[in-house]
Amino acid sequence: MSNEPIDLQTALAGFDDLWSPRIVTRINDYDVRIAKVAGEHVWHAHDDTDEFFLVLDGELRISLREGGAERVVTLPTGSVYVVPRGVEHRPSSSDGASILMFEPTGTSSVGDRHDEVPDHVDATTGHTL
Ligand code: NI
């Protein structure tokens, strides 16, 4: 882990993989992860942790299943949103986006419960930059 400042645009320029988060730094027992996304992720839920999203560029949509109903939240650039623990969700972006997430170290990108993981989604606890 670097003890120098990290330029997020430079970090994002260093990889092209979609739905494949990179760990840019850590705070206490949390990872700060960045990812490039386009198309649909997979329906999944994190049973023991909330999940924080910040949209760095583009527009992210997050489908949510709450209380037997489904809804979609739309996050333009600069928006933050927290998916509560246990809530099934599926991020997507029709035109592509760059996002930053806070997750406890070791959190799987496809959660503790998920639909079948498609080939374009990386099931990972985060890669190093
Ligand atoms: Ni998630």
Major sheet details: 8 strands, mixed
CATH class: Mainly Beta
Number of domains: 1
Name the CATH architecture: Sandwich
Could you list the spans in which at least 5 consecutive residues all have pLDDT below 50? none
Average pLDDT metric: 95
Give the percentage of residues in beta strands.
over 45%
Q: Using DSSP, what is the number of strands?
A: 10
Structural class: mainly beta
Q: For the CA atoms, what is the radius of gyration? A: 14 Å
Helicity, in percent? under 10%
**Bound small molecules, deduplicated:** nickel (II) ion
- C-alpha geometry: globular
Distance between the termini: 9 Å
Let me know the CATH homologous superfamily. Jelly Rolls
Q: What string, H for helix and E for strand, traces the elements in order?
A: HEEEEEEEEEE
SS summary, helix count: 1
Could you please say which CATH topology applies here?
Answer: Jelly Rolls
How would you describe this structure to a colleague?
Strands 1, 2, 4, 5, 6, 7, 8 and 10 form an eight-stranded mixed β-sheet that branches. Strands 3-9 form a two-stranded antiparallel sheet. The protein has one domain (8-119): Jelly Rolls (Sandwich), CATH 2.60.120. It has one helix and ten strands; from the N terminus they run H-E-E-E-E-E-E-E-E-E-E. The mean pLDDT is 95. With 129 residues, the chain is mostly beta strands. Helix content is 5%, strand content 51%. The structure holds nickel (II) ion. Nickel (II) ion (NI) binds at residues 44, 46, 51, 89, 111.
